[in-house]
Amino acid sequence: MRIITYNVNGIRAASKKGFIDWLNTDPADVICLQEIKANKEDVPEGAINDAGYNVYSFSAQKKGYSGVAILTKINPDNVVYGNGLAQSDTEGRVIRADFGDITLINAYFPSGTSGEDRQTYKYQWLEEFFNYLNEIRATRQQLIVCGDYNICHKAIDIHDPVRNKNYTGFLPEERAWMDKLFENGFVDSFRHFNQQPHQYTWWSAFGAARANNKGWRIDYINVTEPLKPNLKHAEILPKVVHSDHCPVYLELSFDAV
User: Fold this and answer.
1) pLDDT, tens digit, for every residue of 16-31?
2) Set 21, 29, 117, 148: catalytic member
3) With a threshold of 0.70, does the pTM exceed it?
4) CATH 3.60.10.10 correct for 2-252
């Protein structure tokens, strides 16, 4: 099972930069998108279908804002739009798909960059999302939680940890939440395979940050411990350029299951 998570920063804008052509190269079986910035009728479903993917999208009520989607070549048994929390669902932040015993959750975490109110909401959302994950795990233990987390976990995950220590996305409280996630039965699939520095998934549009690889690793595919034996390969794909983010890839093997 090949999975990609990718914040496309607007699916229509990404499509103008070759996103559909990329889909036609068969990059994964399941592709989780964040920040699609499109209502359902504005998602180019026909072109995506032609590339071999079914589309399940969950848009924000505000036009041109947030939104998540799952593109999949594997038919899910069940799709759930939202996580039942009013503000999160209004902003189109979570979509879930079940494939047999595996539950895939695609989430676009709030960023907190637009002010103190949004940072406060980010902390609220994190706690609500943690509880939501635990509720699902009570009956479904094989979880894959992918998306734009808008948090760098450790100093290795950000190009300048000293200068950015007081910026949203690398605040102590946010990083502590990530600690809590990994201490409670989740595995960082990328770090399971790769402990090298300078591995990023997002770059600022300013100061030639991407060209100079001055980035942040804020996009993740995390799995629960029962899926750890199935992890086969993970990597970041910085050469795929349709967005200020790049895709993150995970391959799981179920040959021995």
Assistant:
1) 999 999 999 999 999 9
2) 148
3) yes
4) yes
